[in-house]
Structure formats: structure tokens, C-alpha cells
Design goal:
The structure is a homodimer. Chain A is α/β, with parallel strands linked by helices. The first copy, chain A, is built from 10 helices and 10 strands. The termini of chain A are far apart.
Chain lengths: 223, 223
């Protein structure tokens, strides 16, 4: 049977925020399938992999046109390409890392950015010992060069891995230099107004959820 | 007016998972209030700080007995203590960090564990260069000592910051040594069965959400 994708509605107008939140998971699992050389998958198989129901999968993917076909399932490469497109992978976004301490180094050395098509073009730090270092192929610049650097390159994302105390002031300066996307690991709430898109990572919240679940389990088991 | 807490229902039986998920945020904001020396706060003020509605706050906190009183608001210290109790802060949980690379070091040096009452008692790594190092007051041990160490200490949480390739095997071994809580940064899905509590951190998902939001904004603004 020839694979013919259904006619799609204009995606970004119809996909609900809760579906969008789940798309990165689809992205991850589809990458695994591609790596394994699988060209198509049923909603049932995908559901089992992801630990959700097949009907949830069908519902989610129907939101932006289906991509699947009764008796065939999903074309893995096609679905992956569509999800990449929706999520802005391949939109050519660029990022800088502000703070070249352990967290900044861990993040820049991970394959996260490359996998998601984000180009990390520089790291910045106040520590003179770090300057000129090559961290996973990215050069550490002094903070004084930030201004010039941002005028020369179009930067979409600032990854904030600097100390909390310096976060608010630095973020405001970066916004002034035209950067509007902030991936904020500092734990400092940023008030940058509507022009900015801020994604906060609060690792401590995740740790607390784990502690809560461990204590609940122990209670359940009468420990 | 004297502050008299309402009679509370047995908390863990009535609090819904979605409320539990929000509790770490209350924890964070109440810590700020305590630091600022504030002893009481109205649901309206707390709502403004947290960027939610006052009715959401009242609803959430009512789930486990209220803690508030008409015309008085919430007693900050009392509410903080209750939330700590619910979340297992002060339950005396212990953790080890498996993987002393940049991410492990960044995590152990943060104040996350101390704030949440989790005691980090050791780090482990295969790299002989790291052995015996003191990272933020925590000693790096060789992986060969893991077995002995876990028999001598009761460990509740293994923080997995080792390479993805070694994650599944190491986690299974740790479970065999009696550790049931896993804070998993490796990106590897762990299949440890029902005896284990696994909290996965997928930083890449957060990055993708940010990229999506940036692209949506740019589209909206006709860029």
C-alpha cells in the first residue's frame, strides 16, 4: 500500500499546549526508532515503548494531521521530520552559554544542542582562568566581549549557568543586546517582560518529587 | 487574633498528584518569604509572587487542611513546615552521586540537597584521576567500592550522572544493592520494575520547549 499522508490542517494554530509539551518525548522515541532502522510503527507499538495508551498517541498525532494510516501505522521518518518542523529543529537557532562552570561545561558537552539543531557559538565567563579554553569545541570568551559578540552574531538563546546572584542583571543586559530566549538554570526568577521567552529549569523541584515518591512508597510498604 | 490551624485530614491520602507536583514551588517561595522575615501572607500576595490565581492557592492548600484563616492569611513558618513534612524534607534521606564528571560536580556543589534535607554521602567514578578528590565536601570513591559502601550505609537515592551507555547496567546493580530511588540524568530509560522509584530529568525536552516557544513568537511577530 502506498503511503499517502492525509491533508494537514495548519499545525501551529490547532495544537494544544499539552500536546506540544509531549512532542519532545515523541522526538526522542522516534530518534531511537530511526537509529534502529525501523521505517514504520503502529500506534500500539509506539504506545508500549512510551508507556502511554495507543489512543493517547492517535489523539496527539491527529491534532496535527494524523500522519498515520489504518493498517499501516506511522511512517517513522516522515513523522520525525514533521515533529522536528513543529518544534523548530532545523530553524537554525543559535545559543551562547553564560557561565563556564561545571554546569555550563556539562551542558555544552552533551549532545542536546546538536540533536535539536541548535548551534552553540560561544561561552562566556568572568573567571580569567577559563578564558580561551575550548570546551567541547566551544571557546570561552570574557564577559567584556559579550556586547561585541552579540552585535556581530544573531543569538537566539542565552543559556544561563552563571551564579544566581548575577542572573537578573546579566539577563537584562542580554535582552538589551537583542537576545530574547533564555534557558535559565540559575534558580533566579527573571522579570524580563513580554519580549522574552524564559524556560526555567528547577532541578530541585524534580529532586523533591523524587523524595516525596520515595517517602510515599516507604509509607505504603509500612517501613 | 490567635492563629489556630484547622483540623487536618490525613494529608497523603487526599492530596492529588497535580497538587503534589506544585508543592516544590510553594516550598521555594515560602523559603524566600522566610528569608525576608515575613511571618504571614495572604493568598492574594502569595498568588502574585507565584504568578497564579489566589483561588488556585486556596484550592491547593485546602487539599491538605487549609493552614489559612479568613482575614489572617497563612502563617509562613507553619505552612513551610507542613509542606516540608509532606514532601519528605527532614525524612533523613541519603544519596550517592554515580558519575563525577561535570554534571555530577555541578549537582553536588549546588545547595539543592542541603535545602531539601538530603545528605549526599559519596560520589563514585571509574576515572582513576578523580579518585580521592573532595568535591564540595563529598569524596570520590572508585566504582569497585560501591558494593561495600552500600552495605555499610543505607542509601535511598542514586543520582545517575554517568554516561548513558553504562546507565542501565549500573542502575540494575544499585537496585540489587538495595537502592530504590533513582534520579536519572543519563537519558537512558531504566526498566527497574515496581520496586524502584525513578525520576528522569530530560533537559533536552526543556530545550525543545524553549525552541518551540521562540519559533512561535517569531512567527507571531511575523519575523
Amino acid at each position: 500500500m502506498k503511503y499517502t499522508p492525509k491533508k494537514e490542517p495548519s499545525p501551529k494554530n490547532v495544537v494544544s499546549p499539552s500536546v506540544i509539551k509531549r512532542l519532545p518525548r515523541y522526538f526522542r522515541y522516534l530518534r531511537i526508532l530511526i537509529r534502529e532502522g525501523k521505517s514504520r510503527i503502529s500506534s500500539g507499538e509506539l504506545a508500549e515503548m512510551m508507556g502511554v495508551t495507543a489512543s493517547q498517541i492517535r489523539q496527539d498525532l491527529n491534532c496535527f494531521g494524523g500522519f498515520g494510516q489504518q493498517g499501516y501505522g506511522y511512517n517513522v521518518t516522515y513523522l520525525y521530520a514533521k515533529i522536528c518542523d513543529l518544534l523548530g529543529v532545523g530553524a537554525g537557532l543559535t545559543a551562547i552559554i553564560v557561565g563556564a562552570g561545571n554546569l555550563g561545561r556539562a551542558i555544552v558537552r552533551s549532545s542536546m544542542f546538536e540533536k535539536r539543531g541548535v548551534d552553540v557559538v560561544g561561552m562566556f565567563d568572568v573567571n580569567p582562568l577559563f578564558l580561551g579554553q575550548d570546551v567541547g569545541g566551544v571557546l570561552v570568551h570574557p564577559m567584556q566581549e559579550l556586547d561585541d559578540f552579540c552585535r556581530k552574531h544573531k543569538i537566539d538563546i542565552a543559556v544561563l549557568t552563571l551564579p544566581k546572584e548575577a542572573a537578573a542583571e546579566t539577563a537584562a543586559a542580554l535582552l538589551g543586546l537583542g537576545i530574547t530566549g533564555f534557558w535559565n538554570f540559575t534558580g533566579q526568577e527573571l522579570e524580563l517582560g513580554e519580549a522574552a521567552v524564559v524556560e526555567n529549569v528547577h532541578l530541585g523541584d524534580s529532586l523533591m518529587t523524587l523524595c516525596y515518591r520515595i517517602c510515599s512508597e516507604e509509607e505504603k510498604n509500612g517501613k
